[in-house]
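Me: Here is a favour to ask of a fellow structure person. Could you put it straight underneath, so I can go through it closely?

Assistant:
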Amino acid sequence: MDFSELLPELTQGLTNFTAGNALMILAGGILIALAVLKEYEPVLLLPIGFGAILANIPLTGMTESGGLFNVLYNAGIRNELFPLLIFVGVGAMIDFSPLLSQPRLVLLGAAGQFGIFGTLILATLLGFPLNEAASIGVIGAIDGPTSIYVASKLAPELLAPIAVAAYSYMSLVPIIQPPVMRLLTTREERMIRMEYAPRPVSRRALVLFPIVVTLVVGLLVPDATPLISMLMLGNLLRESQVVDRLRRSAENEIINVATLFLGLTVGSTMTADSFLNLDTIQILILGLLAFVLDTAAGLLFGKLMSALSGGKINPLIGAAGISAFPMAGRLAAQVAQDEDFDNFILMHAMGANTAGQLGSVMAGGVLLALVTAIL
């Protein structure tokens, strides 16, 4: 056969390659660069970036019916399997004893969800349908699995920008939160020292906690049960102290494999056709706004608690009331130490951070219930 006759077949990829594909491949490369060079959440951004590159190579068949990414999407995203498996691993890593020894910190976890509902209202005013506005608002919790879970149920067509925004902003917590912290708190407030004399938490309480939370949330907010139950299952594996092999598997192999496939699949949805539009830009901006509002609400509530306690509570722990565990808790403690190296508020911040993890799941379930009932 004449080589000239084969040339069109051999160059189909090039002839179908568009400027949009090139732009999305560049975006994938930027995500990989952030993961490798800056070490911003590399476990998340690296597979997302690589998935975006693969999805924008024409004619591979990977995103089509029966292709690798299509199979992974149907098996792990459409039926919410990957987010739920990740939550088992997250639960196995969380120590709820700082929260149980300081129950009042649960208020900061609730305050840290304000931006979700504020952004929902703003998104509806911008013309987004209620289901899409609710999915966009959940980005503010900086909880990737919850964002994907809610979006896959309410607005699967927006899954790509919502997931990318949630995970990207999660990686940028150390950049986005400190300016908000310094803007809304004074140096004197940031230097407040908090005594840590934790109330003893018995092993019985730690074992009963995940069971009770699952029952209460399941009865009050059934739509949140899949997420909260997997989070609590992982925590029960941890606190029972009788299934170390399962606990280690949950916080290592299971969460690692689920995160890898989740990242690749989310990246594969970043095709030029679905991603390069005005809605995506609006979602990224609204998601950032939701994150800032959540952080601000937590800080302001922290200031209120500080005033009511006579200056015994450092408002910075309010910024940890979002769901980015454990990064937000560590960051709040670090900002306090930047003002006073001997100021240790880590355990208080981690208590607020674990409350934020519970709060984001509850908020996601409430949104699912409300939107489903209205629509």
Remarks:
- The mean pLDDT is 89.
- Residues 278-308 form the longest helix (31 residues).
- The chain has one domain: 71-374.
- The CA atoms of residues 21 and 56 lie 5 Å apart.
